[in-house]
């Protein structure tokens, strides 16, 4: 029990360690080709400053060039280390995808990219005692690799882990060896080749999901074994939106409590409640009027006023829109997923609670 608490506290402390503000340069090197059009890259920081350890499942926001207006993309880290000296990204080169093609090109020549620190709320809980279930499809495998490794690094007796993955075939199955290595992996190939082995043919559906997950399992939370119904699992889902929706619906129909289902694309839909009717917003001399009826975030208001603040996730996770509140007060909703120093705000999830003056970074 104590070991679980310590693991949770260590992960919380990790969020504050080695973080930097603004963009930091990293050298990119190709590690290997993982599957057709998919490569892993090592991103090593220039300079000796410590590197922020990520929580398993987090992403980094990457600026693909020196210029302020260079393309910015976010990619999930595909490896986990409690004390990293580099980050690993595994990125599929998308047809017509300028960001992914540019990263592949920069990696091939050993070039430089600029990063914000790791962020994101889709992270593995490492102090739970319920079974961990990872469900991924396609390139959604990347956070699962980090989670698998972080789970195995737990210092207590970790609960069982099940990994269910959907790919088209062995040719496109990224990290196939890791899935084979995982004790309880279920791999589905929708269009298997004759040479593919160790998989179930077809697509994962609600019925098969129930067969795999509904049976009771044993876990040892207090040093002794107990049996829990299958619905009591911590579930992490990552894949294309229709896949995530199918899995979420199937799990909910099974009786898995919604709070135990986490997915990378799931963002609460509720519109934040305004706390005032209107406010004057001064963006360093550019004046905008904020109103309760329109209820824009300060990022949206700045863009409407013709400004172009930096942004990445637009959901309070990456820190790319961090700015200084010179005077007045704001409300954040959702709450920022990253620590903020006094007087700093995230434009994308902040709304004024009074007239405000803001200095854009
Ligand atoms: S754009 Fe990512 S935190 Fe605001």
Keywords:
361 residues, alpha/beta, Elongation Factor Tu (Ef-tu), domain 3, Ubiquitin-like (UB roll), six-stranded antiparallel beta sheet, 20% helix, 30% strand, binds FE2/S2 (inorganic) cluster
Topology:
Layout: H1 2-14, E1 24-35, E2 38-45, E3 59-63, E4 72-76, E5 87-92, H2 98-108, E6 112-115, E7 131-137, H3 141-152, E8 161-167, H4 176-181, E9 185-189, E10 200-201, H5 206-213, E11 217-219, E12 226-228, E13 233-238, H6 241-254, E14 261-263, E15 278-283, E16 286-291, H7 298-304, E17 322-327, E18 330-332, E19 344-346, E20 350-352, E21 356-359
Parallel strand pairs: 7-8, 7-13, 8-9, 9-10, 13-14, 15-21
Antiparallel strand pairs: 1-2, 1-6, 2-5, 3-4, 3-6, 11-12, 15-16, 17-19, 17-21, 18-20
FE2/S2 (inorganic) cluster binds at residues 311-314, 316-321, 346, 348.
Description:
The chain is of the alpha/beta class and 361 residues long. The chain folds into three domains: 17-115, Translation factors (Elongation Factor Tu (Ef-tu), domain 3, Beta Barrel), CATH 2.40.30; 131-263, Nucleotide-binding domain of ferredoxin-NADP reductase (FNR) module (Rossmann fold, 3-Layer(aba) Sandwich), CATH 3.40.50; 278-359, Roll (Ubiquitin-like (UB roll)), CATH 3.10.20.30. Helices cover 20% and strands 30% of the residues. It is built from seven helices and 21 strands. The chain has helices spanning 2-14, 98-108, 141-152, 176-181, 206-213, 241-254, 298-304, and strands at residues 24-35, 38-45, 59-63, 72-76, 87-92, 112-115, 131-137, 161-167, 185-189, 200-201, 217-219, 226-228, 233-238, 261-263, 278-283, 286-291, 322-327, 330-332, 344-346, 350-352, 356-359. Strands 4-3-6-1-2-5 form a six-stranded antiparallel beta sheet. A six-stranded parallel beta sheet has the order 10-9-8-7-13-14, sandwiched between helices. Strand 15 and strand 16 (286-291) form a beta hairpin. Helix 5 crosses helix 6 (241-254). Bound molecules: FE2/S2 (inorganic) cluster (FES). Residues 311-314, 316-321, 346, 348 line the site of FE2/S2 (inorganic) cluster (FES).
């Amino acid at each position: 029990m104590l070991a679980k608490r310590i693991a949770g506290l260590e992960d919380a402390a990790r969020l504050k360690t080695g973080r930097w503000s603004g963009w930091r340069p990293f050298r990119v090197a190709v590690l290997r080709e993982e599957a057709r059009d998919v490569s892993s890259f090592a991103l090593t920081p220039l300079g000796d400053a410590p590197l922020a350890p990520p929580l398993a499942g987090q992403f980094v926001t990457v600026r693909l060039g020196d210029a302020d207006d260079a393309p910015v993309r976010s990619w999930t880290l595909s490896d986990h280390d409690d004390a990293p000296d580099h980050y690993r990204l595994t990125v599929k080169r998308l047809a017509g995808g300028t960001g992914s093609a540019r990263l592949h090109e920069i990696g091939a020549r050993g070039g430089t990219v600029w990063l914000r620190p790791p962020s994101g709320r889709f992270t593995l809980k490492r102090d739970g005692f319920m079974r961990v279930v990872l469900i991924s499809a396609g390139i959604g495998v990347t956070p699962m690799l980090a989670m698998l490794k972080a789970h195995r690094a737990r210092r207590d007796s970790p609960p069982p882990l099940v990994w269910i993955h959907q790919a088209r075939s062995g040719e496109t199955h990224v990290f196939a060896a890791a899935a084979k290595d995982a004790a309880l992996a279920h791999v589905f190939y929708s269009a298997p080749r004759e040479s593919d082995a160790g998989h179930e043919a077809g697509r994962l559906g609600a019925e098969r999901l129930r067969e795999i997950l509904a049976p009771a399992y044993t876990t040892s939370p207090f040093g002794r074994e107990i049996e829990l119904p299958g619905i009591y699992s911590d579930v992490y889902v990552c894949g294309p939106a229709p896949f995530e929706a199918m899995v979420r619906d199937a799990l909910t129909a099974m009786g898995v409590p919604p709070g135990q289902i986490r997915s990378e694309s799931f963002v609460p839909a509720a519109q934040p409640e305004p706390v005032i009717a209107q406010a004057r917003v001064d963006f360093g001399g550019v004046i905008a009027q904020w109103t309760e009826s329109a209820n824009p975030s300060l990022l949206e208001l700045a863009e409407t006023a013709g400004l172009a603040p930096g942004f990445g996730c637009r959901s309070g996770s990456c820190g790319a829109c961090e700015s200084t509140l010179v005077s007045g007060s704001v409300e954040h909703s959702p709450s920022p997923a990253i620590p903020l120093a006094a007087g700093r705000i995230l434009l994308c999830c902040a709304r004024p609670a009074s007239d405000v003056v803001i200095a854009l970074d």
